[in-house]
Amino acid sequence: MTIEVRDELSVVLKTAGFSEKIAMLAMHLSEIEEETGTVLDLMTALRSHAYRGDAEATQESLSELAIALEHLQHHSTEALPDLHKALGIESGP
Q1: How far apart are CA 56 and CA 85, in angstroms?
Q2: Residue 6: partners with Cβ closer than 8 Å, 6 or more residues away
Q3: How far apart are the C-alpha atoms of 73 and 85, rounded to whole Å?
Q4: What is the pLDDT of residues 11-62, one digit of tens each?
Q5: What is the C-alpha separation between 59 and 43, in angstroms, rounded?
Q6: Residue 25, exposed/middle/buried by CB under 10 A (0-12, 13-18, 19+)?
Q7: Considering just the CA atoms, what is the radius of gyration of the chain in Å?
Q8: Res 5 pLDDT > 90
Q9: Per-residue confidence at 92, pLDDT binned at 50, 70, 90?
Q10: Which of 19, 36, 41, 65 lies 20 to 30 Å (CA to CA) from residue 72?
Q11: DSSP per residue, 10-70
Q12: Rounded CA separation 35/41 (Å)
């Protein structure tokens, strides 16, 4: 039986003692996990394109990286307040 990543993250949150906004937090954590992989892949591609001296591919990868970072930032910004609150962590500046 295959368990969806979101379902796994719901179990993680419940195991950690979360009782509120589990579905929403699991969705954001799932998106964060996916975008993190994309960012790492794009960083590898950037190095490869630059090493080969391919300016056009490097610029295209940088554009894709900017979009992936925006998605990562959005989901992080949405998830962090609830994570901080539930874990008793004071948020930074």
Answers
A1: 44
A2: 26, 27, 30
A3: 19
A4: 999 999 998 899 999 999 999 999 999 999 999 999 999 999 999 999 999 9
A5: 12
A6: buried
A7: 17
A8: no
A9: low
A10: 19
A11: HHHHHHTT--SSHHHHHHHHHHHHHHHHHHHHHHHHHHHHHHHT-HHHHHHHHHHHHHHHH
A12: 10
Tell me the two tokens of residue 71: 């998605």
Token pair for residue 2? 């295959």
Which tokens hold the place of 76? 């992080």
Q: Which two tokens stand for residue 26?
A: 């699991």
